Amino acid sequence: MKRNFSDDTTMDEIMHGSPAAIRVLLQHGMLCVGCPIASFHTIADAAREHDLNEEQLSCNLRAAIESSDYD
Questions:
Q1: Which of 8, 13, 17, 42 has the fewest CB atoms within 10 Å, counting from its CB?
Q2: At the top level of its lineage, which domain of life is listed (predicted)?
Q3: What is the pLDDT of residues 17-51, one digit of tens each?
Q4: Cβ contacts of 20 within 8 Å, gap of 6 or more
Q5: What's the rounded Cα separation, in Å, for the pair 46 and 16?
Q6: Please, which pLDDT band fits residue 69 given cuts at 50, 70 and 90?
Q7: Which residues pair with 42 in a beta bridge?
Q8: Number of Cα atoms under 13 Å in the Cβ half of residue 20
Q9: What b-and-e string marks burial along 45-58, b requiring 16 or more CB atoms within 10 Å of the CB?
């Protein structure tokens, strides 16, 4: 998985690229896995829909992805 994702990367791309990201989403109470909108929603969209801080969510996703790259 590419460690960095852009503002237009979808939630689906993030989850497929790094399964470690799924844990972060679940910890935030997000049910993106299996959601038909995940292939369209970016992090900003998902954060807004779930009333979450986009910057914090993005930071948590990046940390999970980076740590999984070294496992």
A1: 8
A2: Bacteria
A3: 999 999 999 999 999 999 999 999 999 999 999 99
A4: 64, 65, 67, 68
A5: 16
A6: low
A7: 10
A8: 16
A9: ebbeeeebeeeebb
